[in-house]
Fold these 3 entries.
Entry 1:
Amino acid sequence: MARIAGIDIPREKKVKVALTYIHGIGNTTAMKILGDAHIDPDIRVRDLSEEMISRLRK
């Protein structure tokens, strides 16, 4: 399970949905974060590399 902003996001969800589990992040913000990090929104959290998770944390 990836831990971002102190929240364990679900591994089986697509990353665009999983980010909305973090308080204050909705669909629009999640898509902006993924665009800035150059990450495909349809990838599953379990398929994220450590480097991708690091970009999300920034």
Entry 2:
Amino acid sequence: MILGRVCGTVVATIEHPFYDGKKQLIVRACLPDGSFDGEKYVIAVDLVGAGVGETVLVEDEGNSARQMMGNLKNAPIRSVIVGIVDQVALG
């Protein structure tokens, strides 16, 4: 699982039927203090209604992502947004 910030959306005119009606967002990994963690990013299916600029939790492992989508055995998915983060407390 990674902590990240939503940086944008993905719009495709032609895509795999699995993605019909699913919002895909670009999420850039960040550290607990909010700074970006290098150049790592993922494209994730949004399950929680996140928007650009929000800090989110992303499940970035294919099998877990498929289980969250209803255990679709052959679904072409790796990453899903599973939570919107209100606050990160260290210490």
Entry 3:
Amino acid sequence: MNEAEFDQAVEAALDELPEWVLPRLENVAILVEEEDTDEPDILGLYIGVPETIRGHEEPFEPARILIFRRPLLAMTNDPKVLREEIRITVLHEVAHHFGISEERLEELGYG
């Protein structure tokens, strides 16, 4: 899968989100990067303060969701399986923005 196809798979995962989610992601940067320099095996990362603990008085840096291309590509050569792994990773990181824990994501099958 080339870079453009990978980016399209990320966009397709975002397009699957319910309509109510998209406005709440307006100030969230969703970026594709090659890998995390500290943890090169992780697939994605949410950087920010989840909506569930944000207050109205405190200014926060905009949240970011990073999707890491290299470890996802290393998982499989099957484009269908890869698109599903990208979808799960995007949903997993979006869920963190809404305060859903790793444990709950595991229970839901998005671990």
